[in-house]
Write a structure and sequence with these properties.
Number of helices: 3
Strand content: under 5%
Structural class: mainly alpha
Largest sheet: none
Shape: globular
Helix content: 55-70%
Order of helices and strands: HHH
Radius of gyration: 12 Å
Number of domains: 1
């Protein structure tokens, strides 16, 4: 089965790519986790998991 998100940070996520990208961009501009969590209605733990997954993918490249 083909998946366009395979081998990307978005693979196996239940959240839209747009929301994940917004959270990661907000981290880059130093918005604190509680602010990101509030604005996007996502748990801080979830945001940290996205960040860890994105960091791992970046290191693998």
């Amino acid at each position: 089965m083909f998946s366009e998100t395979r081998d990307t940070v978005f693979h196996d996520l239940r959240t839209s790519e747009e929301k994940v990208m917004m959270a990661l961009k907000m981290i880059l501009v130093k918005v604190d986790l509680s602010g990101i969590s509030f604005v996007l209605s996502v748990k801080e733990e979830t945001i940290l998991e996205w960040f860890k997954k994105a960091s791992k993918k970046a290191k693998d490249k």
